[in-house]
Design brief:
The chain has 159 residues and is of the alpha+beta class. The protein is built from seven helices and four strands. The protein is elongated and about 60 Å long. The model is unreliable at 144-148 (pLDDT under 50).
Length: 159
């Protein structure tokens, strides 16, 4: 039961902190996840430090993850609850500053995402989107980037 409660709280925390936390790990984000895992371990295991106890906890966490994955696919309301919507950060060659500020995006990361997609300036884009997973997608204006398959950009959050 402890494992289920801690798993739920951890998923809730990731959802509250948004797609930037999940999609783009900086050194600080990695440290946070590792420290959180270390801090949560006693809450999950309690006084039991046996191999059997560890096996039960690991099995429970994997089954929970599988259950959430299946439920997300079958129940649209759960998907909306657990996942954020993609955010348009530029449209028709212009940055949308309010969206950039709300998502705490860094200008250097946005410029790097454009370059990763073969676009030199935001004016050369039709659409730039921060996706659910934290990656940045770039749709160039017509005539740009023919025949090139864009890579998914994973920048890092400014601190």
């Amino acid at each position: 039961m402890r494992t289920i409660i801690v798993y739920g709280l951890f998923v809730l925390a990731l959802r509250i902190f948004g797609k930037r936390e999940v999609g783009q790990f900086t050194l600080f984000d990695l440290a946070l996840v590792l420290l959180a895992a270390n801090a949560l371990q006693p809450a999950i295991t309690g006084p039991d430090n046996s191999v059997l106890g560890g096996a039960i906890i690991i099995t429970t966490m994997f089954l929970l993850n599988l259950g959430v994955s299946v439920a997300r696919r079958r129940m649209p309301f759960l998907r909306r609850l657990l996942e954020s919507e993609p955010t348009v950060v530029a449209r028709d060659g212009r940055w949308i500053q309010r969206a950039i500020d709300e998502q705490e995006l860094d200008d250097a990361d946005l410029e790097a995402a454009l370059r990763e997609h073969g676009v030199a300036r935001v004016q050369d884009t039709q659409l730039v989107v921060l996706e659910q997973d934290g990656s940045i997608s770039v749709v160039p204006k017509s005539g740009g980037q023919k025949g090139r398959r864009p890579r998914r950009f994973r920048g890092r959050k400014a601190r």
